[in-house]
Each structure stands twice: as structure tokens, then as C-alpha cells.
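G., before I forget:
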Amino acid sequence: MGLKGIRTALKVDLNKPAREQKGLHNRWHPDVPSHGTIANNEVVKIECLDWTGGQIQNNDSADDVRDVDLTQIHYLSGPFDVETAEPGDVLLVEIQDVQPFEDQPWGFTGIFTPENGGGFLDEIYPKAAKAIWDFEGIFCSSRHIPHVRFAGLIHPGILGCAPSPEVLAEWNRREGELIATNTTGREVAKPPEPRNVHGGSADEELNVKIGREGARTIPGRPEHGGNCDIKNLSRGSKVYLPVHVPGAKFSVGDLHFSQGDGEISFCGAIEMAGVITLKFTVIKDGMAKMAMKSPIFRPGPVEPQFGPGRYLTFEGFSVDEKGKQHYLDATIAYRQTCLRVIEYLRRYGYDDYQIYLLLSCAPVQGHIAGLVDIPNACTTLGVPMDIFDFDIRPETDAVKMDMGSCAFASINS
Amino acid sequence: MGLKGIRTALKVDLNKPAREQKGLHNRWHPDVPSHGTIANNEVVKIECLDWTGGQIQNNDSADDVRDVDLTQIHYLSGPFDVETAEPGDVLLVEIQDVQPFEDQPWGFTGIFTPENGGGFLDEIYPKAAKAIWDFEGIFCSSRHIPHVRFAGLIHPGILGCAPSPEVLAEWNRREGELIATNTTGREVAKPPEPRNVHGGSADEELNVKIGREGARTIPGRPEHGGNCDIKNLSRGSKVYLPVHVPGAKFSVGDLHFSQGDGEISFCGAIEMAGVITLKFTVIKDGMAKMAMKSPIFRPGPVEPQFGPGRYLTFEGFSVDEKGKQHYLDATIAYRQTCLRVIEYLRRYGYDDYQIYLLLSCAPVQGHIAGLVDIPNACTTLGVPMDIFDFDIRPETDAVKMDMGSCAFASINS
Amino acid sequence: MGLKGIRTALKVDLNKPAREQKGLHNRWHPDVPSHGTIANNEVVKIECLDWTGGQIQNNDSADDVRDVDLTQIHYLSGPFDVETAEPGDVLLVEIQDVQPFEDQPWGFTGIFTPENGGGFLDEIYPKAAKAIWDFEGIFCSSRHIPHVRFAGLIHPGILGCAPSPEVLAEWNRREGELIATNTTGREVAKPPEPRNVHGGSADEELNVKIGREGARTIPGRPEHGGNCDIKNLSRGSKVYLPVHVPGAKFSVGDLHFSQGDGEISFCGAIEMAGVITLKFTVIKDGMAKMAMKSPIFRPGPVEPQFGPGRYLTFEGFSVDEKGKQHYLDATIAYRQTCLRVIEYLRRYGYDDYQIYLLLSCAPVQGHIAGLVDIPNACTTLGVPMDIFDFDIRPETDAVKMDMGSCAFASINS
Amino acid sequence: MGLKGIRTALKVDLNKPAREQKGLHNRWHPDVPSHGTIANNEVVKIECLDWTGGQIQNNDSADDVRDVDLTQIHYLSGPFDVETAEPGDVLLVEIQDVQPFEDQPWGFTGIFTPENGGGFLDEIYPKAAKAIWDFEGIFCSSRHIPHVRFAGLIHPGILGCAPSPEVLAEWNRREGELIATNTTGREVAKPPEPRNVHGGSADEELNVKIGREGARTIPGRPEHGGNCDIKNLSRGSKVYLPVHVPGAKFSVGDLHFSQGDGEISFCGAIEMAGVITLKFTVIKDGMAKMAMKSPIFRPGPVEPQFGPGRYLTFEGFSVDEKGKQHYLDATIAYRQTCLRVIEYLRRYGYDDYQIYLLLSCAPVQGHIAGLVDIPNACTTLGVPMDIFDFDIRPETDAVKMDMGSCAFASINS
């Protein structure tokens, strides 16, 4: 009678290379062996490494960000079989809590170079940079971005069930087609990559197969969610996930202490290692019942609330910085909106990289405002004024302060 | 001592053709004559027609939507000179209230054909359709979309200051370039249109000039906002607008009783005629002080609040309905997100056009979730569950109901 | 097809004495003649005078407050018969909107002398005082309390159905008993008062009876709500009211542009004349079905939201200002809490009467925190910091400003 | 560089009697020896026992509740000296997090008999009863109150600085006076109690003195807060506490996973042992600067938000259940409001004790609505409908369910 504590379905070892831990894997593939079974309606804790598997240090140089090996990431925890789950079911995952490790109360936000990962504004801000965030309970602050402090909207960046062979083949088909027809001069998608594949407890032969066929953990995909980077999947959320293989083979990772809509600097969340508490419930035949093609969720009731009137909101339109008119392009519009914020906050003494980092990880609200008045898409970006310890209202004159610097790389490759 | 009522800066006549009313105009041009002067710090009421200038009727046919003459719209109220405003200033406009006319408590939402206006999903839903909404205080409901009722997030779809000749020329240049290079087979922008131009109190010669050069009121534009269709510009908002001409020449119109993020069906808001109460304050040299290129705003404190946990939120990614992978395209992702909602709500007996209309006008939250995990942009669309009078939670079985029909056109052209 | 405007069930005349208007009455009595019938599920507008029936002027003297004739108030609109309503039913009243009259955009807050009405802090603040509030859309501000501005949480102070003869008799019994045993030296309840009774369209004989038996409109009472002064009965609220007589005989009045929890200065709300839009639905046998003895309500979704972290909250305990310990007395505790706020805000230059007025009418949150740790009740009072245009956070030094004065009476009787 | 984890200023031992742990104490007295020093601006973790020091078991009998030894409680953690704090300063305590112990994820709510502790409704509900709550991340549920589940508004019930000798003398004077003049027939306050006093590391002589003079930890008191039981002192709150002795001698304890306004069943919160993370900042001369007599606080931004329209709110007035009219008595009014909720929820099959427990610990909102309309105080109690997994709206017929039972004592003493 009474709980003795919640079972931990996976413990990770922060002092051991991620690739040597059998409960982790870094590709989506139906054949990655299960790392244990979870009962229907069970609550478990699952430990997770940060998305790089420990490649980033708590220091003042961004050399580590510049040199991150992206063939390795993300190390996900799992996959776990959930009892009774079958293809066509929906797996209801309730996110009951997310916490950093008690003895590692810090995280990081990074700006990647265009050569290695890139980011939403990398043509304008091509240097590698980094901010370290210290956690004080539910709050975080950074020596690299002074005068800012906020409560984290803590969440996992990645969660989802394994693809079936058919779903995986479709992913490889359509992303391969994009790569094949690419004329942009930049990397447009990440094909299967045999280097540094880690198939959990797969034997060598299976590991090779997973490397050859397995989908990368970048990006999120409609059939299962995966790396969706939705900041609102925080404490208390209920996520409804399509099941494609027997047992569901659920994986989770890439924990974020906080993130802004868009996660614009790519490694834009406050990335951390930690523990997630989840409850699993199988809804039989859920995909047909809910007409579900992509995940659905309900946020929890405890999101930080600033009040609608405490957001300073910026508008952006699909005219790029060279004056070129684009057609209803919300991506371009959101890029412009981000630039408007940078121009505004720069007046207080921040350098642009600090703001770029901040916009990526603070709980900013990025909305699609209008998408039908040709040719301009309009997007908005709401910055909660209360994350600053000074007054950023437009009617108050901006006073330049000494804002120090974020961490940069010694040489930007 | 004490107020005797707020001055009405413009009265409109609902029974007189819009084109005959001198306080209205339907193009953006620096030379549209001012319709009176507003003092710095003054509060005024301004009456507005609906965006079509009265072309839509409260009936059960969408023939009027199908046949709307888009060369005429939008009829804006103004322009008004604001005392002391000069180019380079910022005009702070506080939206103190928006109300429908007391004796006309209804509005409409329309789906336009691809041949005339189109919409975000017009390839899939090409028919003209309409829903009439009845206003009961702050709430609205529609005989064309049963079992739905919600409080309006009332706001103006269009507000802004007149462009300078230079700004206008730039608009015409870049939009003209888009038109000139268009290979999409569909209309991509709206060039100046001499037909049906209404320059307010302009004489005939000036009217011709305005028709030749004046920018259309579709779309919004970064330099002044204009037709930005931001649902959160509601009661209590403070909007900071760039001033480009002496006196600012402020105009407003296109009142919406409610709108969802994206306004996806084009005439997607609940369109209405009514009265807006505004306070005007000039911030001298504000554009330089705030480093402002596009409008900024702060929402008011009274937005309808459902609680974060009362949204059912759908995910969408930049893979289109034919399985084609697009590169970080938030517009495609949002289209997919909308389709996911339609598939979900269809199970209750709504037809797709009803849902398309509903998504356009109910206060749905459209967020840009992730924009950096190549190649998939991820967007979310949160539907407030409390706008329905039945339970739409995924764990409750969907029961099909008789949902009647929205209004369709007799023949879809 | 379609609405032509909502029916106005009662128009009031601001230029005619309240006592001469047949749609008004100022006592609760089952025999007050009905002023028309409302259909089940009908939406109507009802005009209301301010609670004094026009005794207060928009000027800078509180003589009118000092001299208010309390035998006359409140002039309520109604009563209205609602079709099909019978004793034992519940009348669901949805408050769809509340608005001040367009040509009378102002209201007042008053402090009454102990000799005439009194107030929560009248032993400490015995002078008559007044603040006039100007309405600008949803906002209000006062020349008598500078540097403050907020959105109104607009609501009716009084609404309810008529008592049955039995209910009325019980009211007179129990309140009479309190009066009969009163040893406090102050007025403790208001017995029936024949002077200035206004029974609507009652003939003289009936009017006399109503004066002899009818319950005063001060206070609210458990059996029907009445003068409950609940600030959250604002736009969008659904109120469930017990029905005691055939037709329900519903009345409403005492409109408030805003009020704080407790309405502490007695005439503490921002009192106004205006229009309320209501929808009426009869729930048959509702009292038994809901086990209802007193009204229940659900607030609407549009209350001003400041965010939980934007309240500065004060604690108070049931030890009075003379150091006397009281036993779990929440009334004493709340009085102390109010005094703590006055002491705090006084530092900015406000005089105590200004703060007393402000606490009465601004949307302050008064909570019962703890009621069981003998002998101290603990209450809290949360002041939304964003109603001030200066920074009231405790970590910011208070700077005294010239705050002018509220209106006082020439001689305090 | 970088944090290695936050220092734990006090560890408690759950397997050792509370009275043997030197970092705990159970009286307020200036001479309780300090248990270590905290730097100005330091963040520390402090472990706390539950308020009974471990007297309650996770089982299905309320015998332990019935027999709790109230001379022992509360065991507080501390006192801690804060560097530089002097009498007259204000100690700003930021509550950065509160967590239950990981291996003890449960808590309890109790109803005490009138003979031992009592409660707000003990005349009506005199039996000892108990509910055990299981914690699943941020949520809790109870086998003793089925169909209910909610996110905890986690907070400390007690925090404060030690009284000076003068303050302590005043407490003893005024509470002694209340006891001396008590004619109610029930215990009205708790005088100093030598039995079971635990003065932390005090030697025997000092312990005797503390027992003779020290103030009990029931109730909260205006001069320092203490046992204030304010549910909103949750994560992210900033509390401003008066300092009365050198070093402040801060203590904290009585952690609550959740509580409703009023904590009506006395042991009404969900009581638990756990860890609190606090940041301490000394504001020199703060009491004079802030005109502070009692604590002030700002809630944090992460309180569970249900949306204003998701509360079902009950009204209560100061007429007691025997029909007696009381004069502006908010305590009586709140008692009536609680009874109205019990009558309402009973219809679903809950017994009254279950509802009494639930109202005590769920995040219900207890407001003082009106306090000036003689003779009725009006209070409201808002129940968040979303804590139930069934529909409690009034328009839905109540269906009785099998709700099991809370834990009762075998014999109620």
C-alpha cells in the first residue's frame, strides 16, 4: 500500500561515453532492440543525456559548439516496449515532470556555423557562439546574457514511437528526393549516415543495417512527431502518438530547460541532461478513431503566465532583408520578425549573437498572424518583458549597458 | 468638467454606397486627402464599414461571396492627420475598444474561389462558402456552424499610416518584380488597379493618380503594418506605428469580431462594420529611438483566457499532402496542420467547409514550433476546446451529429 | 432571417427622477408588479441607472456623497417575468455584455461617513470623499487618483429573483433579530423603510405594503444573491439563480465599471449607469437538481489577466490596530490587510483616502488564505502592479510624487 | 566556473525522531541557536519534515490523525543566520523550487477532531479522517477521493524570521488575553507549552526557557508571517519578511504539495516532507523603506492556470446554518460557502468528509467578495472544474457514482 517511489526505466551514466550505453540510440529504425518493457498505465522515470551526449562543456569558449560531431546526435533514451501497443493504436504519453539532474544544474544554448548545423539566421550570424545557463530551481540565468532571468518551460525536444519499415522507407524516399533535386548550395536534409551510428544493444550486423537505413534524429516527421521541438510539451502535457510497430518502441530525449518558438539558433533551446517522468496509456485503434496522421497534444496547466499585456510583440512580413518580395512565405516572415527583435534589443547594449541566443531559448511566442493577403505572410514574435530586469517598454528611453559577451569560438573554422 | 462623450471623428452611412462617402478610401497613397485632424493625446471614435463595403448579406447563399468585387475593397476610414506627427515619429495608437454597430449585430466569414481571392486551402476547397455569425454581447454563434460559441477577440484587421512617395514606390517595385517573374500560374500579388479606386475627397484628377500609383489594401506591408490581420490587436492593445508623411495620415478599417491565427480562408475573420475607439500619441523621433522598421505592439489584458490545458493542439510538418518534402517551409507546415484539424473535427459531423470557416475565425493559436531541423518546419495549431458545446477530447469517442451546412454559392462560377 | 438588433426590455430616462420611472423599483418584494415578460432563451438589453438614481455629480466636491439619501437606493430595473419559470426552478442568466451609456462615459467611487452608510475602514477614515472616473473604451482613469489606469472588470452589483412571501418573512425575522439585539452602537442592518419606497408600477396601496414589508436592497442575501457585489460576475459569466415566485421576477441594477474584492469603501465600485445584455434560460426543478441554496456562477473567459507574478500581495491577520487578538476573524484580518496596502502606497504621495478609494474599485484580489490556525485568520490582498504607470515593486525606492487630491465634502456633516 | 550543484543547508533524516535532529525546532523564540549561516544572495536547499514530524502513515486508517501529538508540531528547519541581516532589514526570500523527496512521493490531508486540533467545519464534521495522496510528477491523486487529479500548487506553509524578545512578549500578551477572556467553551489559542519542546541545539536550560516563553507554531502572526498557509507562496514567489533579530534567524517548514484557500480542515493541505530551494537577499533598512508591518509577496509565474471560465463558483453569506444573522462576518460567510460546495458535490456520490478534505487541499479560490453591505458579508469559493475527470457543470445532470471512502479512525476518541 502506498508508493515507494517511481520506477526508473533507464539510468544514464554521465561519465561514460554515450555510444557505450545500451539504453541509448541515435537513429530511428524499427529494429533498434527494445530496452525493457513498460506496462499499460505505468508511470516511469527515464534519464536522458543532453542531445550531444555530453560534447559541450560549462566554460566560456564555443570551440565545442563549433566542433560538435553531428553524426552522433541525438542520443535518445529507449526504445521501450509498451505492453499491448500495436500498430494503429495511439500511445498517450503524459509528461508528468521534467527535471535537470540535481548535481548538474546547468545547460547550454549554441549557435552553429553554416558548415556544421547552421541555424535560422546563419547567413547573417555565421559564427559559433554559446551561452551557459545556470539553474536555480525553476529559474535560469546566464553569465553570457546578463540582466535576463526566467522560469523554464521545461520539455523534451524529441519523443515518438519507432517507424515501421514502410514509414521509414517513405521518409528515406521523400527526403532523398529533396536532396537529389537540391540546387540551393546548402545541405537541405540529412540522409542515413553509417558513421557513428549507435543502435543501442544491436549487434554489429544490425548496427550496420540501422546505419544504412535508419532515419536521422533531425528533423521531426509528421508520422510520429520525433524531433518536433515544441516548447509547450511541458509538465502536465498529454501527447497522443501514433503507433507503427508492435510495442510502440517509444524513445525520448533532447531535454530542454526552455525554448522559444522556432528554436531559431538550431541548438537554440537550453539543452540539458535530466530526468523525465512519463505515464503511458494505450488507446486501442486510436489512429482510426481519431483520424490521426500526426501527433496531437494538450499542454499542461502550469505554463509560465505573464499576462497577455506583458508581451512586447514584433511584426514581420515576407519581404527579405534585400528588399525582395516573397510569396506568402511564413519562414521568411518569421526571419524578418526575429531581425526586428534583434534591432530593438541591440539598443540596450546586447550584441546580436546574445539576442540571437536569447530569442532561441526564452519563452517567446511565435505566431502565424496572416497567411492569405498576397503576397505577404505576416508573423509575430512576442517577447515577455518580465524576463528582463530592466524596463524594455518602447515608451522608455533605451540606455546602453555593459552586457559583456556570450562565448565565441577561438577561430570560427 | 468631466467628459460628455468621446468625439466621433468619422460617421459612416450603412445605407449609402461606400464609394460616395468622403471619409472612406480604398488605396494607400500619400496624396489621399485628410479627413480631419486629431489632437496629440486625443481619444476619438471612428466608424468603419465591413471590408467589402457592404457587399455581403445576412442570408444563406454564398453567391455574394463568390461575386465580391475585389477592386473595391477595403474601404478604410480616414486618413486622419494627427497633430505634430512628422516623418520619423512613431504614432502610438491605443485600441481602447472595438464594437459592432448596435443595430447590426452580425458578421460573416467567407471562403473565396481560387478565381476571386482564393484562400489558404483553395486547391482542396475551391467552392465559395459563407457563415453568418450572430453577436450576443461579447459572444458569437452561427446557424451555419452549430454547436460552437465563443467570445470574440475583437480587433481591426487594418491600421496604419500612409506611405511616403518613396515607400510607395518601393512597394510597387518589389511587388511588381514578383508579378513579373511569376511562373506559378496563379495571381501572386495585386498591382495598382485604376478600376473602382476611391480616393476619399480627392478630385477626379487626383483620384486617377491614386488609382495609377496607389497600393492595394491587400496585403499588409512591413513599413507600416496595414493589413496585418493580427488577431491580438484587440481591446487594450498599444500599437506603435512608423510615420512616413506629415500628419501621419492614419487609416483604419476591416474590423473583425474574431479571427484565428492565419485567417486561413482569406475572408476568414468574422467581418463586420462597427466603431473603434482609439487614443493617439505622437512619440517624436520614435523610429530612430526604437530602431523601428515595422510596427510593434503590446496586447491588452483582456484576451479570452481558456487556460493552457484547454487547447487541443495539432502538429504539422513541411511534407505536403502528396508526400513531397519541402525545405523548412512554415507555410506548407501550417497548411498541413490545418488539414489535421479538419480531419479530426470532421468526425463529429461537420463538413470540411464548415471547419475551414471555423478555423479561420475562432481564436485558434497558430505557432511556429521548430524551424531549424532540416528539412521539416513544424507548426502547431491550438484549438480551444471550450468553444464547442460538446466534448472534443481525444479520449472521448466521437459521435457524429447533424451539423447542417454552411452557405454555399448556387453555382461556383 | 438574421438579427435586427437585440430587444431592449427597459429603457431608462437619465433626465427624469428615478421614482417616476415605472420600470424601476427600490425594494425586494414578491408583489412588485412585473415590468414585462422575457421568453425562455431570450436575449435582451436592460438599461440601468447608477445605484443612487443619479444623486452624484461629475464634479470635485463630495458633498453629494455625504448627503446621499439611502432610503431611496438602489433603483433596480425590473422585475421581469421569465416565461415558464416556477418556484424551485433555476434561472440561468448569462451576462453577455455590460456597457456604460455612450454619452455618459464616467462613473464614481465614494467614501461615506459613518453616519450615512459608513464603510469598511470608517473608524479610521470618517470623511466623505469621492473620485470621478473617466471611461476610455475598456479603460478608466481618474483626475482624483493620478498615475493609475486600468481595464474595467465590468459587472452588475445586484441581480436576483424576487423573494417569496416566506423568504421575505425569514429575511425580516433574522435581520430584525440582529437589530433587536444590537449593542454595538452602530447600525447593523437596514429594516423595512416606508420612506421613499418605489414599487415600480404599484398603486399607492401596494406601494405602502411594499414599504412596510419589502426588504432593502442592502445587503445581498443567501436565498437569492441580490446585492452580492461579486466583481467576477463580468462579461461572459453564467449565473444560476434560485427562483422563488412564479415568473421569477428578475431584477438587476447597480452596475459597476470595476470593483475590488470587498468593495471596501461601501460605494467602493466605480458606479455607473448603463446597459446590460442578458440571456435567460429556465432550468426546470433546478434547485433540487443542483441542491442549490445560494447562487452559483461561472465567470467568463475575458477577465483582465495580469499574470500571477504581476500582483504585489499583502498579508493581514486577525490582530487589530490596537493590538487586540481576535479569534479567526477574517473580517478583522482583511481590514488589517487593507491597512497594510494603504501604508505601502502612501509612500508614493497618495493620501490615505485616495488609496482607500482605489482599493475599493481597482481589480484587487482579496483571498482568505488560512482560517484554521487559532487564533489568527490570515487574508491576502493582491494589487495588480500594472494599474500604476510607475514602478511599485518593493525593491525600487519609493519616490514621493504630487498626487493631488480626491474630492472631499466641504463640511463632513 | 559553473555550478556543481546547490548547497544543501540542512539535511533531515526521515528515519530518526524529529526531536533528536539539531537542525529542527518547534517553537518561535529568539534564543533558538542558529543552525548555520547563509550568505547574502546565496541559494540553498533546505530539507524539511512534514509538519507532524512523521506521525502519519501511508495507510487506510485515520487513527494516526486522531492521535497526533500537537505539542510536538511543527518541526521547522533552521533557524539560519543570514549574513548582514539586522533588525529593521527586510529579508527577501525567493522560493525557487519546492519538491517532495524522490523516494517518498506521497502526502496526506487530515480532518482533526474538535478535541485535538479541530477544523473549520468541526461542529458539523467531528470525526477524524484522512486522505493519502500519491504524487506523479507535478500531479497528485488519492485512492481516498476518486475521480480527482490535479497539479500541485506546491509551497511552504510556514516561513519567517525569529521574533525579538519584545515581539515575542507582545504575542504572549495578546494571545494570553484572548485565552483569559475566553467564554466560548473551546480552545481559542495555544499558549507556550513546555511539553515536548525542541529547541534545536539548545542545551537543557535553554530548552526549558524556550518551552516556557516560546510561541507555538500555530498560528501565523502579523509581525513575521510564520504559519500563514498561503497557497500562492509557490515556485517563483518572492517573499519580503521583516527582520527582528540579528542574522534574521530564518526558519521554514510545513511543506504543502497543494492547498485550497482557507486550508479548512486544519491539516487541510497535502502535507509532505521534501526540499525547498531558496535564495536570500537582505534589503537594508527595508522595514522603514517599505513601511512594512507584515510580510509582502509576489507570486511566481507558474501557478496552474485553468482559465477564468473553468471555475464553478459558489456564493456564501453571513447567515449561519441555523438561520442566525451575523454582522459582516467573513468567517461565517466562508463557512457557508464551503457548505454550499459540499451540498453540490455530494450529489456525485462523495461523502461529506471526502469533499471537506478535497476543499482543503485542491487549489480552490476563496475570495472576499463584499464586506460592506450590512449585515451580510459575501464570500465566494471557486472550484476548478478540471480537477475532476467527470463533468460537474450545473447544466449536466449529476449521476451518483461509487466513490469509496476516505480513511476514518477506528474509534473517534
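Chain D has a mean pLDDT of 96. Chain D has six helices and 22 strands.

More on Monday.
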